[in-house]
Amino acid sequence: MYMMEHDAKADNFWDRFSDTYDEKVETLFGKELRPKLARLLDREHDLGDAVEIGCGTGYFTAVLAKNARHVTATDISPNMLDAAKRRLHGVNNVTFQIENGEATSFSSDRFDMVLMANTLHAMDSPLKALQESYRILRKGGRVVIINYTDECMGNAEKIFLLFRFAIKFGFPPRRHWPVTSDRLSSLMIAAGFDVECIGLINGKINTLYARAKRNK
C-alpha cells in the first residue's frame, strides 16, 4: 500500500535487477563486504518486533530474522520483494509487504527496531524517512542505518566506482548520494533520535554503520 506520491521510475529501475542484484553487488564491491556488514548487524540482539525498510533481495533480512521475534520486510519494488520471499522461503518469523518508507501504513509505536540498509540515499526525503522510522518505533526502540558512502575515498576511486556502477546498473535515481557521517548524524538528530554510534567500514566502497535510539 502506497501512502504518498513517489517516483515510479525509481521503482521500475530496481525491479529490473531483482534477479541479478546480488551478483552485481558482489562483483562491484567484493564478496567480503556484505558478510562483514552482516556480522556487525548480527551483534544487534533481542530485536523484538523489527521492520526493514527497503529489504531488497532479503540479504540483511535473514540476519534480522535470527535475532528478532518477528520481522516485517518491506520494499517499494514488487520484484525485489518477490526475490526476498524466495530467499527467506521457509523462515517462519518474516512477513512481507510493499511500503513506501517515507510514509508507511504502520501504526505509531509498533516496532522495537527499524533497519534501513542502502536505502536512505535513494529516498525523496531522507529526513522524512527517519521521522517515519521514529514514529513507528516504540520508546526505547532503535534504528540501524547501513549505507554505502564515498566518504574518505579519493577522487580517482570515486570516478572509477561510478564508472563501474554505471556499467552494471546504468545510472539510477541518485537522490541524496552521498550520505556522509556528519550528514547522517544531523538527519538522525533532526528526526528526534539520540545517536549511539556511527562507524565507517572500509572496502571497495566505504560503508556507514549507524545506530540511534528513540528515547521519548
Can you walk through the features of this model?
The chain is an alpha/beta fold and 216 residues long. It contains eight helices and seven strands. It has a seven-stranded mixed sheet, sandwiched between helices. The two termini are 28 Å apart.
What can be said about this structure in brief?
The protein is of the alpha/beta class. The protein is built from 8 helices and 7 strands, in the order αααβαβαββαβααββ.
Query: How helical, in percent, are the residues?
Result: 25-40%
CATH topology: Rossmann fold
- Using only C-alpha atoms, the radius of gyration works out to 16 Å
Beta-strand portion reads 15-25%
How many helices?
A: 8
What's the CATH H-level superfamily name?
Vaccinia Virus protein VP39
Instruction: Return the structural class.
Output: alpha/beta
* Known CATH architecture: 3-Layer(aba) Sandwich
**What's the overall average pLDDT, rounded?**
91
Largest sheet descriptor = 7 strands, mixed
Tally of strands: 7
Q: What is the CATH C-level name?
A: Alpha Beta
Q: Distance N terminus to C terminus?
A: 28 Å
Count of all domains? 1
Low-confidence stretches: 1-9
Sum up the overall morphology in one term. globular
As laid out across the biggest beta sheet, the strand order is 3-2-1-4-5-7-6
Order of helices and strands: HHHEHEHEEHEHHEE
Question: What topology emerges from the helices and strands here?
Answer:
Blueprint: H1 8-15, H2 21-29, H3 33-41, E1 49-53, H4 59-67, E2 70-75, H5 78-87, E3 94-98, E4 111-117, H6 126-136, E5 137-149, H7 155-169, H8 181-190, E6 194-201, E7 206-213
Parallel strand pairs: 1-2, 1-4, 2-3, 4-5
Antiparallel strand pairs: 5-7, 6-7
Helix pairs in contact: 3-4
